[in-house]
Write a structure and sequence with these properties.
Number of helices: 16
Oligomer: single chain
Radius of gyration: 21 Å
Structural class: alpha/beta
Distance between the termini: 34 Å
Shape: globular
Helix content: 25-40%
Strand content: 15-25%
Largest sheet: 9 strands, parallel
């Protein structure tokens, strides 16, 4: 039995901050500890009590570093790593100018392996220990990503994109091919190690009714998988779907008719929903994923976070790399805060941290294993340096409570703030730097 005691500041997710007082939903311990045994969290509490109860256990002292659950990126395109922050106009321009040409390169297994390694390295550099990743139509793109995630011991989600129309010939399949190749990948990867497969029709415009029906049948046959796609990202896209599916009551209804709603369904963006669609999302337990940096980069609009939370809809937070302009979930939280301000919905730092951890884990149906510092959870956690830059340190010096200390890192932090990353209790990134600043006592 391998056991270690990690010491530092801790922030426990004890309740959903959207459902009560956000300031008390997360419990801060200035001198705290996390006891890890065989890759899982055995205890969380005050450092002195844990040290007294486990005097012979090896200790890893993170100083004033803040120990948090690893970040959960609920919607990202692993295959778009190389086109991050490329200039473009709207969604369809982005797809034709950058996305599709890049995704064609993944027909080469060597390139797929190279980019899978780079993508996961960048995620870990920024403290992301779990993500729901879109691959390409090439099965090898999934195998490369899953194999690398397995070697690293990560809890990861990925799926082969399904597209049989409105895309270059080199990137289109058929309903039958998409079903068969996805089924084979499910047999190979679903539940292997800490991996989860996501059935992945890209979005309604690039799938025929027959293919979406096949995706629904595949999910019905493998309900332990997730299902990820896009919904109502831009107004032009909504109109396009209406023209392609005139028989449907709306964009969401296209998926509904095919059996693609319900717990475990992840709808990226979901900006331009009708009243009926909001009601149906809530009724079915379908999760929505907020992609703030992508929504601004491509000019898509503002996600109605307050409405989603009021309806108790599961919501994850996501970088949407590469439409999103950063691998950083810190930057993503900052963008979510800024868009919330524009929408008249001010979010507390606890709201942002919840979305980036426990909220995303619950949307991915992984909340029983990741997303919180709690006994029984997998030991996926990060250590934040709350004084990673001079500008941040200047703000922390004036902090009156933990939220004053954390918020500057949310708004101004980057990969320099990620002092250590652990997955399943194993160190994947280095420990806190000497002299890191902490919060108030």
């Amino acid at each position: 039995m391998k056991t270690a005691l990690h010491l530092g500041q801790t922030l426990e997710m004890r309740a959903n901050p959207f459902e009560g007082d956000p300031a008390t939903a997360l419990c801060h311990t200035r001198l705290g500890g996390v006891l890890v045994t065989d890759g899982r969290i055995a205890a969380v509490g005050a450092a002195d009590a844990l040290c007294a109860a486990h005097p012979t256990v090896p200790r890893i002292d993170h100083g004033a570093g803040l120990i948090l659950p690893g970040f959960v990126d609920a919607h990202a395109h692993a295959a778009q790593t190389a086109i991050l922050a490329r200039w473009s106009a709207r969604l369809t321009d982005w797809l034709s100018s950058h996305t599709f040409p890049e995704e064609m390169r993944f027909a080469d297994p060597a390139y797929a392996g190279q980019m899978a390694a780079l993508y996961l390295d960048l995620c870990l550099d920024h403290g992301t220990t779990t993500a729901a990743s879109f691959c390409t139509i090439h099965p090898e793109s999934v195998r490369a990503l899953m194999a690398r995630a397995e070697v690293l011991g990560l809890s990861w989600v990925a799926g082969r994109v399904m597209m049989d129309r409105n895309a270059p010939a080199a990137l289109t399949d058929s309903a039958e091919t998409a079903y068969d190749e996805s089924a084979a990948l499910i047999a190979e990867w679903q539940g292997r190690g800490r991996l989860t497969y996501a059935i992945t029709p890209r979005f309604a415009p690039t799938s025929s009714p027959a293919q979406l029906e096949a995706a629904g049948a595949l999910w019905a046959a493998h309900p332990g998988c997730l299902m990820q796609t896009h919904l109502s990202e831009q107004t032009e896209e909504v109109a396009w779907v209406k023209a392609l599916y005139p028989e449907a009551a709306g964009y969401l209804d296209v998926y509904d008719r095919m059996g693609l709603l319900g717990p475990g369904a992840l709808m990226g963006h979901a900006i331009h929903l009708t009243e009926a669609e909001w009601a149906r999302v809530a009724e079915t337990g379908t999760a929505l994923v907020h992609c703030p940096t992508s929504n601004t980069f491509l000019g898509s609009g503002i996600f109605a976070m307050a409405r989603a939370q009021a309806a108790r809809i599961p919501v994850g937070l996501a970088t949407d790399v590469g439409g999103g302009s950063s691998f950083s979930m810190l930057r993503t939280m900052a963008a979510a805060f800024e868009l919330g301000q524009l929408a008249g919905h001010r979010m507390h730092p606890a709201h942002l941290l919840w979305l980036a951890t426990a909220g995303g884990a619950r949307a991915l149906r992984l909340g029983d294993r990741i997303g919180a510092l709690a006994p029984g959870q997998d030991a996926d956690f990060i250590v934040l340096d709350l004084g990673s830059t001079a500008a941040i340190r200047a703000q922390v010096a004036r902090a009156e409570d933990v939220w004053d200390a954390v918020f500057p890192t949310i708004m101004m932090g980057d990969d320099r703030a990620i002092a250590a990353v652990y997955a399943g209790g194993q160190a994947l990134r280095g420990q806190v730097r000497p002299g890191a600043a902490g919060g108030p006592g």
